[in-house]
Amino acid sequence: MIRFAGLRKTYGPLVAVDDLDFEVEPGRVFGFLGRNGAGKTTTIRMMMGLLEPTAGTVTLDGHDIAREPEAAKAITGYLPDRPNLYDKLTSLEYLRFVGGLYGLGTHDAKARGLSLLEEFRLADRAHELIETFSHGMKQRLALAGALIHQPRVLVLDEPIVGLDPQGAVELRRLLGRLAEAGVTIFMSTHSLPVAEELCHRIAIIDRGALVALGTLAELRARAAGSTAGPRDGEPGVAASLERVFLDILEADAA
Amino acid sequence: MTLLAPRLLAARNAYRGHPRRMWVLGVLAGLFWVGSLVLFVKVLGYFQTIGEFGPLLTQRLLLLIFVSFFAVLLISNTVTALTTFYLADDVNVLLAAPVSRRRLHRARFVETLVASSWMVLLFGLPAFLAYGVVYEAGPVFYGATVLVLLPYLVVPTALGVLVTTGLVMVFPARRTRDAMLVGVGLLVPEQLAHPSGLAGLAGFLAGFEATGSPYLPTTWAAEVLVPLLGGRDGDPLFHFAMLVSTAAMLYVVSATVVERVFLTAWSRAQTGRVRDGGGERPLSRWLERLARPLPRIPALLFQKDLTVFLRDASQWSQLLLLFALVGIYVYNFSVLPLEDGSPLGRAMRDIATVLNLGLAAFVSTAIAVRFVYPMVSLEGRAWWILRTAPVALRRVWWSKFWIGYVPLVGFAALLIAGTNGYLAVPPVLTAVFLATLVPLMAALVSLGLGFGAAYPRLDTQNAAQIATGFGAILYMVTSLTLITLVMALEAWPTWRLLRYYRAPEAFGTGEMAGFAAAYAAAFVAMVAAFVVARRVGLRALERLPI
């Protein structure tokens, strides 16, 4: 469903993303992990056509984002790391606008917008200007916007940041439901428990390059092979993703 | 100094990031400065030649400069203080840090003073310098000018801080700012540079008292300098002492008030505008109805852009400016002595006719720089929404183009038709002007979008601020060059047509060919400007940072 082929981004001598080559299968939740500045957001921006790659391609459901940007974007929903929205619109006006951009008719966009506002606990603020919203509310509204056209691919950049505990739990449930319904989810996150709970496959990047890719079990096995074994539990107890993540990055740096 | 460091470092980094841009701005400011100096020297020199009224007029002018700058400074400081003291994001950081309120006040006071006063200084210094040059004043005058300016600038800053703090204690800060932006839109410092600001000068000079009220700091400032120019006796030291002591007293009062009430005022300032319930806003429904005949994407962008525009108070103040500009322009035509039948009246009418197209285009550019140029920047950090939507950039460009073009061309056409009516211009010539406006306004809007995308200001949502940036200056210069070119190409055919209608005389074949060539060259220039600006604009949109 999502395919990265030789994706690379350089800024002069700085290599931000280095030759990414992997695929994400349909209906899967894919976790994209890495330290701050590892190249996650740069990769996602190239994936969404917000940034031109130095080399390589990204295809979304068979559509190359560089050659057929409109077809690729039409099936994709995107949540950026910072939910900057139009402050002078109300939340319902925003959802109707975004719905319209993705081809929904006026009435459909309104009906779908109202139902999403209900789902994201924003129904009572439907006619308030977005400038009065808290960060977490803007985050929920931006996510509602990403879902308004019922995308087949959902790209989320740090979706948990800014959400209250209730919001985070609801988001995890929502992502689970969407994946069950066949939506492919590509998610960068620092929240390892979320990745552990939701992701079918995980990629770890460091300094722009892919250092690990696989299911959680595969990553555990790999971490165990590269270190003296699981260190954060009793012998025989599986290591947490946090431990696996740190071990892989340490092994890569060594 | 520590608290001012972030601002100073940011300014230094801005310079390092764009050294060439700073040089261009510096050269433009220098040219403006020298031009103003020459103009002031000429005006003051002229005043000196008109006998006994001369000194009186120059004294009036000096007082007028101090009074009008003071009014602008007072308003500008009040608006700036609201941002620096109560709306800036970093106040949170300073409040959490072990920084006393007194230090916070000092740092923000200096910041407010500099931010509000630099533009006034830029425009004001050539005037003071011109006084020194014309009156051949000694170094004491120049030294005194510097010494006077400092307390003179402190007084409106202190008053501005006090007024703002009082307002914030009563109203939430955002509402205060919105109200102030609307109320003072015409008076912010950058408006000083506008030629329309000079319209009332003559009348003001004629009626203005030579000596102001003895209780005002503006009078004290003028009274320090006038005697030093040798015009008449006075007591400069006394007035200087009055000015300094008042400035010091007001500074201490503002520091004490801010120290006492800052936390309360800051807490109140955090209140946004939340409506008390209610359903869908009527604006959405009206715009939806208005946009119904348009295709889907243009209709959506039209509704979104207009909603944002109409809810943005900084844009309303721009609308007020637009009305003032048009009013002054039309008024100037209405008072031209055209109907007296004299050769002078006829000549003025013909000159005004030839210039009218260019002048109307110039007024339209002044409007475009405030409404069209900021369009891209106003997308702000929300630009990702359009960039990740399945909408081609060229469609976004065209939507923005039409939103800017239709009102602008309509406005320019009304302006031309109206003023040509005053000038009794033959209808054929008015038709030629209107036909020129169609491609000319298209080129101006395309240039506005192009420069707006190439020099985006995504960090501010204040359209008035966006319209004063580097790209806006380049846009104005480029537009004026294009307008001058078109006007120069069309001047001769216009002049000739005008003469034909005043006293019919057949055109020669060569003359007709010349007309065709002139209009064709003007058309090509406008189309070329449109096409190049569109290409540059689209490329810049693609690279717009998100």
Tell me what the structure shows.
The complex is a heterodimer of chains A (254) and B (546). With 254 residues, chain A is of the alpha/beta class. Helix content of chain A is 39%, strand content 24%. Chain A has nine helices and ten strands. Chain A has helices at residues 40-47, 69-74, 91-101, 106-119, 135-147, 165-180, 192-198, 216-226, 241-253, and strands at 2-11, 14-24, 29-34, 55-60, 63-64, 76-79, 153-157, 184-188, 201-206, 209-214. In chain A, helix 3 (91-101) crosses helix 4, helix 3 (91-101) packs parallel to helix 5 (135-147) and helix 8 crosses helix 9 (241-253). With 546 residues, chain B is an all-alpha fold. Chain B folds into two domains: 5-269, no CATH class; 283-543, no CATH class. Mean pLDDT of chain B is 80; it is low at 184-210. The interface between A and B is large, with 36 and 35 residues.
Identify the notable features of this structure and list them briefly.
heterodimer; A: 254 residues; alpha/beta; Rossmann fold; 24% strand; B: 546 residues; mainly alpha; 2 domains; 21 helices
Give the arrangement of secondary structure elements.
The complex is a heterodimer of chains A (254) and B (546).
Chain A: E1 2-11, E2 14-24, E3 29-34, H1 40-47, E4 55-60, E5 63-64, H2 69-74, E6 76-79, H3 91-101, H4 106-119, H5 135-147, E7 153-157, H6 165-180, E8 184-188, H7 192-198, E9 201-206, E10 209-214, H8 216-226, H9 241-253
Parallel strand pairs in A: 3-8, 3-9, 6-7, 7-8
Antiparallel strand pairs in A: 1-2, 1-4, 4-5, 9-10
Chain B: H1 5-17, H2 19-48, H3 53-87, H4 91-96, H5 101-134, H6 139-170, H7 173-184, H8 201-207, H9 217-228, H10 236-269, H11 282-291, H12 296-310, H13 313-334, H14 343-371, H15 374-379, H16 383-387, H17 393-422, H18 427-454, H19 463-466, H20 470-502, H21 509-543
Helix pairs in contact in B: 2-3, 2-5, 3-5, 3-6, 3-7, 3-9, 5-6, 5-10, 6-9, 6-10, 7-13, 9-10, 11-12, 12-17, 13-14, 13-17, 14-17, 14-18, 14-20, 17-18, 18-20, 18-21, 20-21
